[in-house]
Amino acid sequence: MAPRIHKATLHKQSLRGLEAVSFVSNHHFPRHAHDQFGIGLVTHGAQRSWSGIGSVRAGPGDCIMANPGEIHDGIPLEGKPRAWNMIYLDPVLVTEEWGEDWVGAVALVDCNS
């Protein structure tokens, strides 16, 4: 069994409601959700994940996204480490920046279509 690798690096930034994190991991993330919008890019390795749109494979150059509250997981392919960069956006910030018309209607990925 390969040793567990999991490193998360939080990148310092000054924008309110935004977090930027880089990950390198061979960890299997069980199903979970985040309170923020997540937008990411896989930079190395590959993973399979489950979400409201079904099973998805992502490798280098692929964009990965999740809406607030969207249940998803993440499993490295062949147990090998993968690396990805994520930006997490607070939904309150998104509605403040883009106006009240977006409240309750903002979705980065429509998992129901």
* C-alpha Rg (nearest Å): 15 Å
- How many discrete domains? 1
Mean pLDDT metric: 87
- Poorly predicted residue ranges: 108-113
Number of strands: 9
Characterise this structure.
With 113 residues, the chain is mainly beta. The protein has a single domain (6-102), classed as Jelly Rolls (Sandwich). It is built from one helix and nine strands, in the order E-E-E-E-E-E-E-E-E-H. A five-stranded antiparallel sheet has the order 1-2-9-4-7.
Key attributes of the depicted protein:
about 110 residues; mainly beta; Jelly Rolls; four-stranded antiparallel β-sheet; 1 helix; 9 strands; about 45% strand; disordered C terminus
Structural topology:
Elements: E1 6-11, E2 18-25, E3 29-32, E4 37-44, E5 47-51, E6 54-58, E7 63-66, E8 72-76, E9 82-89, H1 91-98
Antiparallel strand pairs: 1-2, 2-9, 3-8, 4-7, 4-9, 5-6, 5-8
